[in-house]
Amino acid sequence: MVDVFLSCDSASRAAGSRQLEAVLRREQARRSDFGLTLTGSRGAFFMEPMLEVGTTAGRVAYGNVAVADVPFLLSAGMLEGKPIAPFYLGDPEQIPFLKGQTRVTFARCGRIACDSPLAYEKDGGLAGLRAALQRAPQDVIDEVQRSQLRGRGGAAFPTGVKWQTVAACAADQKYIVANGDEGDPGTYADRMLMEGDPFAVLEGMAIAAWAVGASQGFVYIRAEYPRAAAAMRTAAEKARQAGWLGRDILSSGFGFDVEVRQGGGTYVCGEETALLESLEGKRGIVRAKPPYPATCGLFGKPTIVNNITTLATIPAIIGRGGDWYASMGTGRSRGAMALQLAGALATPGLVEVPFGITLRQVIQEYGGGARPGRKLIAVQAGGPLGDLLGEDRWDIPIDFDAFAAAGGMLGHGGIVAYDDQTDIAALAYRLMEFCAHESCGKCAPCRMGAQRSAEILASMRLGNGMLDDEQALDDVAFAMRGASLCALGGMAPTPVLSAMKLFPEAFRPPTR
User: Fold this and answer.
1) Is the pTM of this model over 0.85?
2) Domains identified in the chain and CATH numbers
3) Segment 273-291, tens digit of pLDDT
4) Judging by DSSP bridges, how do beta strands 349-354 and 336-343 pair with one another?
């Protein structure tokens, strides 16, 4: 029997894979000559829905398949891997968008059944956890430090330092919290992992627990990700049944379990202390720091809060070695980074590449540049708080420190492109309105500053701007940057001010 692989990722389903699954199920019942395996997505969303067939010569892909195309493909020899135009893509690993990538964290996405513990283990899963349980906890932390892995959630804090701090704390209870509150517009790496390779997240959490002496973990997922939450709950239950979670993990005598929680739909809970407040059943507002979660976190106990992508990278590091991971990258940014390409690009999707490649290369070689007949005018990296980068700044390498030195932010790896049909003044207003809406309201500079900035920008859009509006925005930005409790308030003015600098004509008041 031939295996047919279809992505059940949310983005793939939005592109039509849900309807494709239904017709394939019907054909499967009628023909009985192929099996259907649901996977995550490889991230080439411009080719979705994409089918892959496991032929005797290897995997063969067919892209942009519609429901009406399925009977034709089956009758034309898809199960034999025949080159059927215009759908045929050949070996998926050789598709130009995928061929040049270095898949580490996302290696299994699109390749194996996303809900099968057996498929996960057969593809190398659990090698990291087994290796960790054979070593002293401090050795595991040392390996993570050798890898030079930095948090992928946005702040880029060294993961090993955070783990070492928690390990050094004496406490009767410690926690591992996976931050899946991915709220930046244009980002979807965490969702792809939770839906496409959830066991990697759980394995990374178990390794972290062994390293620091934690017995309980939580996966905190944003309310807008119901499929990701369902996938993680299913994976946790199956891992528990298989002995990967629970009182005696892999017969080691070590106990660690995981509970999945969903947030209430607020952007600020992506900030680790607001997330912890929410996990405790309180309103999700930012805590003053110090103390930091590593010493006084969930319920006042030492807590590791790591991003989903960070934790899913840990099994490969422990399985293959910290030095192997650190051999990729540049400067203090080592390993590979998952970049999520969105906006006005010809070929949007997720790419995983070693640090050091330039932003221009990512936009042109993977994003395909502008769509036909359009011209790119700016790129925003790092989410809604990130700087707008004009073309003169696209040669910045993908590197946390290089972006910071250039006044930008790499953040969680979201890259949104804007073309010459973008209303820049409307974009600036929408970004500030987003921050005003999502402010937790705890500190006055963010609560009042974002609202006042949005009002000024709204007035400018309506042609009612004043000559001193730009100075007023600068003054409010100064207060927000200097006195806000967290990055939301401190960085909210960044995209607006950069937009005004790049495109001053879009904000000038009309001549009266």
Assistant:
1) yes
2) 2-99 (3.40.30.10), 117-326 (3.40.50.11540), 329-419 (3.10.20.600), 424-506 (1.20.1440.230)
3) 999 999 999 999 999 899 9
4) antiparallel
